[in-house]
Specification:
globular; alpha/beta; 8-stranded mixed beta sheet; about 250 residues
């Protein structure tokens, strides 16, 4: 992959001040990647970047609110000015507003807020950084989805997420939309070095996943890091969990 003046690849991770995003930044940084900690709150982003630097990782905070197009544009401008390109974009930022809320009761406002962050924010961010990713000789886009966004899994009464079915419809629908965007963007960029994949981190112990989740955050970040560091002959346009392809 491309290297900056320090010989590093450059990765931007959205929502990287905590949870899976922070751990993704950490694991990438341990591989010698310069990580840009995207965070809506600049102070929290700098705190996270500082903690990573204390671990010997080249980490820098980048203010980035995926629900604010001006913030996205400003972040892209900063990355272009500082590095001239981007090698890895991990679209990690997301919200869950209808956990435990039946599909018949989740309000339109909840649906709008969910799609604003999980779909429109992700799409706008990807579009803003595609020109910089094309300047990399091995660009990688990783869009975080969920098994709850898989129509195949959700429609199976025997699926591992069966207990979730009936609630969280807005969140699941937003992730299904992310899967569709990924498939289209990967096809568009098929003749470039940029690979685009969507991943399911699994049910992870985070603020969103709660302590009842099955996976520790270290394992939850693993699929993002795998997709972010795929070799030239790696897949594109797929949906994966821990290296295994998932059904749409």
């Amino acid at each position: 992959m491309s290297s900056n003046k320090a010989g590093n690849r450059i990765a931007l991770v959205t929502g990287a001040n905590r949870g899976i995003g922070l751990e993704t930044a950490r694991q990438l940084g341990r591989q010698g990647v310069t990580v840009l900690v995207g965070a809506r709150d600049a102070a929290r982003g700098e705190l996270a970047a500082s903690a990573l630097r204390a671990e010997g990782i080249d980490a820098r905070a980048v203010p980035l609110d995926v629900t604010d197009p001006e913030s996205i544009t400003a972040a892209a401008r900063t990355v272009e000015q500082d590095f001239g390109r981007l090698d890895i974009l991990v679209n990690n930022a997301a919200v869950l507003r209808d956990q435990g809320v039946p599909a018949s009761e989740a309000t339109a406002d909840v649906w709008r807020e969910t799609f604003e962050a999980n779909v429109f924010g992700l799409v706008t961010t990807a579009q803003a950084f595609v020109p910089l990713l094309k300047k990399s000789d091995a660009g990688r886009i990783v869009n975080l989805s969920s098994s709850l966004g898989s129509l195949t899994i959700v429609s199976d009464p025997a699926s591992p997420v069966a207990a979730w079915i009936g609630s969280g419809a807005a969140y699941g629908a937003s992730k299904a939309a992310v899967n569709m965007f990924t498939a289209h963007l990967a096809r568009e960029l098929a003749d470039t070095p940029v690979k685009v994949n969507t991943i399911d981190p699994g049910w992870v112990k985070t603020d969103m996943g709660t302590d009842a989740a099955l996976l520790e955050v270290e394992e939850g970040a693993r699929t993002s890091v795998w997709a972010a560091t795929l070799p030239a002959d790696g897949p594109t346009g797929g949906f994966y969990h821990l290296g295994r392809q998932q059904p749409w």
